[in-house]
Specification:
alpha+beta, 4-stranded mixed beta sheet, 3-stranded antiparallel beta sheet, 4 helices, 10 strands
Length: about 190
């Protein structure tokens, strides 16, 4: 090997070594973005899952005027009985002045269609409402579970406040005045 070739290899080797050291010190070496991408994808999936859970368990909300064909001065709200045949709780809103009154309707495990306000005598100030878990309605505030067969039967305490309902033909019928009677559970003005 000639002296020139030897010097050239040594110089090239020094340049590569210096570049590597410089990159390590300055942090300019190429890093894999895979962990960052995985974290971002997981965060997006988690947010999507949380939104889906919230949407499924909490907001089966259907405005009563849209779901029942109720006019502005109607005295009753009606729903087809077939809407509740799957045993899943359906949540509804009724707007009275500036208060949104929430209630749910479900067909319990004993085959009876039941209705209750989405609130109770104890936890209503928290405004967290109920969600369904199997054959139970669960309070989002205290976590108590209420069997579907007791909804509209047991009242007071932390039980869902009953809402009067009746069946006429193939329709579930609720008087608007009975819905409005539950407004005290949803008047959050002055509550922190």
């Amino acid at each position: 090997m000639s002296k020139k070739t030897s010097k050239k290899k040594k110089k090239t080797g020094n340049v590569n070594t210096r570049s590597a050291k410089k990159a390590a010190v300055l942090g300019s070496e190429k890093k894999s973005r895979t962990p960052l991408i995985i974290i971002c994808v997981c965060a997006i999936l988690a947010a999507g899952g949380a939104y889906a859970f919230y949407s499924i368990s909490y907001t089966h909300t259907v405005a009563t005027s849209a779901s029942s064909g109720m006019s502005a001065n109607a005295s009753v709200v009606t729903y087809p009985i077939s809407l509740f045949s799957d045993g899943k709780a359906r949540h509804f809103d009724y707007r009275y002045n500036d208060i949104t009154i929430r209630y749910f309707i479900l067909k319990s495990s004993d085959g009876i269609i039941r209705a209750a306000f989405d609130a109770c005598d104890v936890c209503w100030p928290a405004g967290k409402f109920y969600y369904q878990e199997g054959d139970y309605m669960v309070c989002r505030n205290c976590g108590r579970r209420f069997a579907s067969i007791l909804v509209n039967e047991v009242k007071g305490g932390c039980n869902p406040a009953p809402l009067k309902r009746g069946i006429t033909g193939d329709k579930l019928v609720i008087d608007v005045s009975d819905i409005i009677d539950g407004k005290q559970y949803f008047n959050f003005s002055g509550k922190a």
